[in-house]
Design a protein that fits this description.
The protein has 4 helices and 11 strands. With 199 residues, the chain is an alpha+beta fold.
Length: 199
């Protein structure tokens, strides 16, 4: 079993030694966005911090997502967008995030957002400050949930906005993680591979 620093270094090594797959945005009027995949360790177990979006936001009302949002003109990079949005949504300061790298772009199922995901380690416990205009609640999901279900992945139809979207689904308690969030986590686990000692 790798210790915490070795795991961080291993994830960083894996992500820095591959080129994230990008989506060609030259022909379609896509909206660029970025998210942070916040990882932390609680009682020896790695977990992912997720948000449940409020019903007040313009896009993806009530969905399970990562802290993140659309790129703004003053953002110098996609990473800056992810860190800025994490602070605005849940009060996570960028100085408290150890960024490990970037993974492949993801296109949303029901809108024209191209998501640029970044992986980071955050402290635990943390004094979050939830912006209720954007976030309804926070919840923590064991990272092993995504690893243990990849081989027996559930594919299901989820109805949202009057449309049915078919894709990978992860269930945790009463929450259903689907769409881009599920796809990003599935891909992240695939990138990490086995033997890293996370699970």
């Amino acid at each position: 079993m790798l210790n915490n620093e070795e795991i961080h270094d291993t994830i960083r090594y894996i992500l820095h030694n591959r080129d994230p797959e990008s989506i060609d945005t030259s022909r379609v009027d896509y909206i660029h966005s970025a998210v942070l995949i916040p990882l932390f360790k609680d009682n020896g177990e790695y977990k992912v911090l997720l948000t449940k979006r409020s019903t007040k936001v313009e896009h993806h009302k009530g969905q399970i997502s990562f802290p993140g949002g659309a790129v703004e003109e003053h953002d110098d990079s996609f990473l800056e967008t992810a860190l800025r949005e994490a602070y605005e949504e849940v009060g996570l300061s960028k100085r408290d995030v150890t960024v490990l790298g970037q993974i492949d772009d993801r296109l949303t199922l029901v809108s024209n957002f191209v998501i640029h995901p970044f992986v980071g380690i955050i402290p635990y416990p943390y004094d979050f400050n939830i912006n209720s205009e954007e976030v309804h609640s926070l919840f923590e999901v064991p990272l092993k949930l995504f690893a243990s279900t990849v081989s027996t992945e559930e594919i299901a139809d989820v109805e949202f906005g009057g449309k049915k979207c078919r894709g990978p689904v992860f269930r945790y308690g009463r929450e259903v993680i689907w769409g881009a969030t599920a796809g990003i986590m599935k891909n992240f686990i695939k990138i990490l591979g086995s033997g890293i000692g996370l699970f």
